[in-house]
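User: I'm new to structure prediction. If I give you an amino acid sequence, what do you actually give back? Let's try with this one:
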Amino acid sequence: QLPLVESGGDLVQPGGSLRLSCTASPYGLDYYAIGWFRQAPGKEREGVSCLNSVNDSAYYADSVRGRFTVSRDNAKKTVYLQMNSLKPEDTAVYYCAAILRRLCRIDAEFHYWGQGTQVTVSS
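Assistant: Good question. You get back a string of structure tokens that encode the predicted 3D arrangement of the chain. For your 123 residues, that looks like this:
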């Protein structure tokens, strides 16, 4: 088991920023491709971003491209989702997920999931 834990969710005003973190302490995430997903009430889960394990290349959904950036710090055993220019429609529970592969595919069957962190964008 890989104990994924998300953190960093909060209430933020439109236009604001948040940085979500995904860790699996005490394990590292070096060899895992990491996906970020979100689910808003009454909506299907949406794949937001997908970060390769082998390099820094990532997929972004059209809805977040140019505003969200995913990155990893292997020394800190953490993957981050930097979210800028937040909109009310970004409100959702955000999940990170991991799969042991080099290249990330947002439609892959991720093996491990966190419990989620709430992001609320509202004035």
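You can read the tokens as a compact description of the fold. Here is one thing that stands out. The first strand starts at residue 5 and ends at 7.
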